[in-house]
Amino acid sequence: MADEKDDVTTEETEETVEAPAVPEPVEETAEAEAPAEEPASEEAPAAEAPAEEPAAEAAPGPEPKKNKKRLPRAERPKKTRPRRVPSAGERKPIVREAAPESERGRRQERRGVVVSSAMDKTIVVKVDVITSHPKYKKVIRRSVKFHAHDEQNSANVGDVVRIVETRPLSATKHWRLAEIVEVAK
Length: 185
Fold this sequence. Notes:
- α2 (24-37) packs antiparallel against α3.
- Mean pLDDT is 74; it is low at 25-36.
- The longest helix is centred in the N-terminal third of the chain and has 20 residues, at 2-21.
- It contains 3 helices and 5 strands, in the order αααβββββ.
- The protein has 185 residues and is α+β, with helices and mostly antiparallel strands.
């Protein structure tokens, strides 16, 4: 009896070791039992079909996931634009519309007093700005100085002038003299 127990324990240990590791030996034991009950010729095709299914199920499981950040260029999704089909009719000619004259946007105009005319072809104009405080509604008077271009050096200190915004003429000059409104006394 001791020998029988040893045989049983070795068979159990062999079965437990083989069963989880490889699913095919379990099917082999089923085939070994089947010929004892029925002829082997009838069961052979049926035994082959179940052997294929577990192998197919086992293969997809351990496949690693693909990292989508670094795909080879050939495997990246294609971004294709639909191609333009040339029409059979005539194409419209490319026509450039004439730009409207003096419609370059609204130029700002300011009125102020000439503070300095010491520079050549440049005057400094002090413009008083009156605004109300957004929260407290108090009237605030501030002054801003602008450098303006005076081509003929016609403006003098104390003159009231009108200046117009223009393209940048230098690092500080973005205005030009439009007209002298009042000459200083």
